[in-house]
Design goal:
By secondary structure, the protein is an all-alpha fold. It has helices at 17-27, 34-48, 56-68, 72-89, 92-99, 112-123. α1 (17-27) crosses α2 (34-48). The longest helix is centred in the middle third of the chain and has 18 residues, at 72-89. It is globular, with a radius of gyration of 14 Å.
Length: 129
Amino acid sequence: MYALQLDNNYFKPTIGPVEVHNVLLKIGIPPNLLGYNYIVTATELILNNPLYLHTITKGLYVEIARRYGTTSAGVERAIRNAINVGWLHGDLDYIYQLFKNCISPKRGVPSNSLFLTRLFHYFNSVEFE
């Protein structure tokens, strides 16, 4: 089991679920998908403890699975599905604005870890303020 230390230097108390919901809706991820709630929870966990970015599979997914009573593989799959749906049906201009040079049409949909990392950096940047 991984022991993660909380680093309060990264946490911005003004960022809550509402801001995360707004961004996900703008991206085009519908709230009826199970992965939507997992992404909201993942973003909150990462904002509170950025070390989760280094243990996404064995730390973050396990914690989300524990909270929702499912498996870490199910969490990963649901998040990947939500990201794919957002990419196929979402606002591409907003997606490119949010992800900047992290994505390209040639490479396609970003990985779960790239998506969550970019959300973390977006909420901790001047762009969000």
